[in-house]
Amino acid sequence: MKAKINNKVLLTGGSGMVGRNIRSHPKSKYWEIFSPTSKELNLANYGNVVRYINRIKPDIIIHAAGRVGGINANLSNPVDFLVENLDMGRNIILAARESGVKKLLNLGSSCMYPRNAKNPLSEEMILQGELEPTNEGYAIAKIMAARLCEYINHENSNLQYKTIVPCNVYGKYDKFDLERSHLVPAIINKLTKAIHEELKEVEIWGNGEARREFMYASDLADAIYYALDRFDKMPQVLNIGVGEDHTINEYYSVVAKVIGYKGDFKHNLEKPVGMLQKLLDVEKQTNWGWQPKTTLYDGILETYSYYISLDANEHYF
Q1: Domains identified in the chain, total number
Q2: Which of 47, 69, 168, 188 is 20 to 30 Å from the Cα of 298, by its Cα?
Q3: For residue range 20-29, what is the model confidence (pLDDT) as tens digits?
Q4: Are strands 168-170 and 8-12 parallel, antiparallel or unpaired?
Q5: pTM: predicted TM-score of the whole model, two decimal places
Q6: 64 with 48: CB under 8 angstroms?
């Protein structure tokens, strides 16, 4: 039986990790999804964005595009992380307004929260303190996009432009090279390499006691489809998370258990670690009616299975 198509969706960032999880999710069959490449839709060119939107006439836009990376990448390229994400967010949101698109779902980031804010981080804490320096440029761009959506909705209530703020995500289609990867895929890469090279110990940046909240990317995709079906009831800004965090050391321990690494760990206290804790307040998410389904162990197991299925030259060792 052919699936009933709900509405037409324009998805930016469809080739990225989050975008690919959205496109491969079982619920994708109920939506007509347009996911242009960067050559087909240059988000840095406002006129190009307006023309594309006017041509396909989407019912809703999901803005998942962005330049992303870990601490190394953010520290090395702060200008690019600020300007590229700023341009992409501004152009897609303003072009949507100019073209009369009534619904837009903008993906924010937990780095939008102040570095010294009390955890768990509630949506009202955005812009209530100094940002974490290791990813400040990216955070500023994400805050701008979220505020722009809010301003547009305030000026015209018929335009529902809203933002979800996911916790850190990992999963299939992630980046595993150490220059661009976030924590979980980086650990998978490092420990697999350690096994391959028969290393007896692996380095952890800092003392390993910083805490992070990670969600399996397929669960985030599920939350996005839940939002598409219940957009009117979704808050203007909404955290999407698992409601619990773990130390960096604990993530290394779980990955080691999944992939069979038996060696030791050493801590490099001279390396940056970012915020000491980043745990989202999920009270609004719970009241909204959605919860993630994948455990940390199962998510890492699925991610590792994807990683070892890649070509050898994508393993970075």
Answers
A1: 1
A2: 69
A3: 999 999 999 9
A4: unpaired
A5: 0.93
A6: no
